[in-house]
Amino acid sequence: MNEKLERQIETAAEIIAAAQHVAVLTGAGVSAESGVGTFRDAQTGLWARFDPQQLASQEGFAADPGRVWRWYMHRLDMVQRARPNPGHVALAALEAMTPTFTLITQNVDDLHERAGSRNVLHLHGRIERFHCNGCGLPYTLHPQDRDAPMPPTCTFCTDYVRPSVVWFGELLPAHELAEAQRAAGTCDVFLVIGTSGVVYPAAHLPRIAKRRAAPVIEVNPEESALSDMADIWLSGPSGELLPRLLEAIRLRRAGQANVS
Ligand code: OAD
């Protein structure tokens, strides 16, 4: 790891170790090292020819419910075969050592939960949950649903069942968004990990923190739409940098404990 990055990690660790309230926004990049492609990456092979709007929208679902259902069963299978990576695990460990910790994710996978994160705010829903597209009744997936050519139908209103993820043009869950905005408005430091920062309102959250002069720290191997606003940009994969950052925070916390 180069000298400059080492120094940046130490500076970031100092800020986070002193923070009472840490807020984190994650995107698809935090799951990349678990082999879960980003929304757009996942459209490889037979799915590459479809436009995301056709696979993740009410219009696409109405036009071809079977195709949308098969796409989400494909992604659910990919998520459930994946394992949390060291980046997910480091975030769960950081939560356990921080007085107030708010983990906000744009990801629909459950890798944060499987890594041990306790209260995760899913702004874009969760792929392992389902509900009726008509009446909203929750639905429990049955094994035979996974290979079915068409979505199951609701036992109450007979409309089609869909994954509980936010589709293009749909509103984000109000409670999760309000909690995320509140965290951005009260945190001592805001971490942005593995997101291109182009989808709103999620991408607005670090700006809320920045406006209050809370430091914004980004972890991403590439420059994102949020990098110009970040006080520190740790350029590298989160699966590698987050454990390193956690170690530096642990050392500082231990040092603080000895002094006090
Ligand atoms: P994107 O695919 O737009 O961006 C992924 C980001 O992760 C990029 O900035 C990559 O540079 C970065 N990245 C790749 N590998 C990484 C690694 N190992 N460690 C850290 N970062 C890495 O995914 P999101 O920003 O999450 O919305 O996309 C946001 C939303 O756009 C998604 O939630 C989805 C999509 O439309 C909905 O489905 C509603």
TrEMBL record:
Co-factor requirement: Zn(2+)
Source species, domain of life: Bacteria
CDD domains according to UniProt: SIRT5_Af1_CobB
E.C. number(s) listed in UniProt: 2.3.1.286
Binding site for substrate: Y72, R75
Ranges where the Deacetylase sirtuin-type domain occurs: 2-252
Keywords annotated in UniProt: Cytoplasm, Metal-binding, NAD, Transferase, Zinc
A GO molecular-function annotation: protein-succinyllysine desuccinylase activity
Binding site for Zn(2+): C132, C135, C154, C157
Comment field on protein domains: 2 residues (Tyr-72 and Arg-75) present in a large hydrophobic pocket are probably involved in substrate specificity. They are important for desuccinylation activity, but dispensable for deacetylation activity.
Reported function: NAD-dependent lysine deacetylase and desuccinylase that specifically removes acetyl and succinyl groups on target proteins. Modulates the activities of several proteins which are inactive in their acylated form.
Name of the molecule in the record: NAD-dependent protein deacylase
Origin species: Caldilinea aerophila
Lineage: Bacteria, Bacillati, Chloroflexota, Caldilineae, Caldilineales
Gene that this polypeptide is encoded by: cobB
